[in-house]
Design goal:
Number of helices: 8
Helix content: 25-40%
Bound molecules: ligand DP6
Number of strands: 14
Distance between the termini: 34 Å
Low-confidence stretches: none
Length: 365
């Protein structure tokens, strides 16, 4: 598929008003997306587990305007309150997708959104937030053109979400999702994410992710700035190659359930992401002392017990603790006994692999 496939021809229906609600999950990358080209094209392919509990619910109410507006017309509510400061991000998103969703200036929208996880927890809400909005807009597109297939719906939702935030492309479906062209993955694309098309051992089907909230502050480096640091980065070329190689290896790991290798790849990816930030100009240290304490505790516990627990990190200090469901009892006990003390206000979120976004209600008038 090319970008041309996402430009709609004429719509079949006239829709004057309606509403739709989507609940869309966050995701945690195993092979990280870090570095991008123009138009949200990733510098390397990435793969993630879709989460289950961490999600954004977005209700989109739409009403056709008498005349096509000059500017986008919408009100944005976050957790019940009008949020003017979130609007620029939505305007940028609308500008980027207007060519593919040409109805945008024909409607007034009310966007009501809320997160299942605490606001300012340091958990990125852009993946769940922008995927939820992309899905809601796709529901309106489907009203206008009921002929679109489910496959097209999901692909285009991912395509639109990507234009809002790269990682959001991976939040449409579950449970293992890949975004970005990779020679060894059939049908993979830089334009949208796909459900992982190969065998995934049952060990991974209910994988656990306990998110330790080490630092709930604002992100020190916005993702845009962070991605840009990969331009002219001395190690960028090797890093992008490594991501392809890790995806090659993961294919066998997913098939066989080789947890030792899985752990090696996942932790190496997290540390490489941070290494890229440590070695960029300007440079950043995004881990906090407690991030390192947690990593060391995880390694000591793994050595002591031979359990398959590992960590991954995003562009921040919080730690995602990943482990198989069959070791949940002992691992969760270890987390409570030894890791929660390093969390800000003892806060953590128990999540697990999920199966993608869901539409909650559709009311047609
Ligand atoms: C470190 O998706 O937030 O979480 O495309 O600029 O919105 P933008 O970036 P974003 O980057 C996420 C980077 C990451 C790794 C990952 O999720 O793959």
């Amino acid at each position: 598929m090319t970008i041309q496939n996402f430009i709609p021809s004429e719509y079949v229906n006239e829709i004057t008003k309606g509403e739709v609600t989507w609940k869309s999950p966050s995701n945690i990358a195993l092979v990280k997306y870090w570095g991008k080209e123009a138009n949200q094209i990733p510098a390397n392919p990435s793969i993630s587990f879709t989460l289950n509990t961490c999600a954004t619910t977005t209700k989109l109410t739409y009403e056709k305007l008498k005349n096509t507006a000059k500017d986008f017309s919408f009100d944005l509510y976050f957790e019940g309150k009008l949020k003017e400061d979130f609007k620029p991000k939505i305007i940028t998103f609308f500008e980027r997708i207007e060519a593919y969703s040409p109805f945008l200036k024909d409607y007034h929208f009310i966007i009501e959104t809320s997160n299942s996880f605490p606001h300012s927890s340091g958990i990125a809400s852009s993946a769940s937030g922008l995927s939820a909005l992309a899905l809601a807009l796709m529901s309106l597109e489907k009203e206008l053109n009921p002929n679109i297939t489910e496959e097209y719906f999901n692909k285009k939702a991912s395509f639109l979400a990507r234009l809002g935030s790269g990682s959001a492309a991976r939040s449409i479906e579950g449970d293992v999702v890949q975004w970005g062209k990779h020679k060894e993955t059939k049908n993979s694309s830089n334009l949208y994410a796909i459900k992982y098309p190969y065998e995934v051992d049952k060990t991974f089907k209910n994988y656990q992710d306990t998110i330790l909230l080490v630092d709930k502050g604002q992100k020190e480096v916005s993702s845009t700035v962070g991605h840009n640091l990969m331009h002219n980065h001395p190690f960028a070329k090797e890093r992008f190659k490594q991501a392809h190689k890790n995806l090659d290896t993961l294919k066998r790991v997913f098939k066989t359930g080789d947890l030792k290798k899985f752990i090696e790849i996942v932790e190496s990816e997290a540390l490489t992401l941070h290494a890229m930030m440590l070695t960029s100009l300007p440079y950043f240290v995004l881990m906090k002392p407690n991030t390192l304490e947690i990593i060391n505790k995880i390694w000591a516990f793994r050595k002591r017990t031979n359990k398959n627990v590992c960590f991954t990190l995003d562009a921040g200090a919080n730690v995602h603790v990943l482990y198989p469901e069959f070791e949940k009892e002992e691992t969760l006990q270890f987390i409570k006994d030894e890791l929660v003390a390093y969390c800000q206000n003892g806060q953590y979120i128990c999540d697990q692999i999920g199966f993608g976004a869901a539409q909650l209600i559709v009311k047609k008038e």
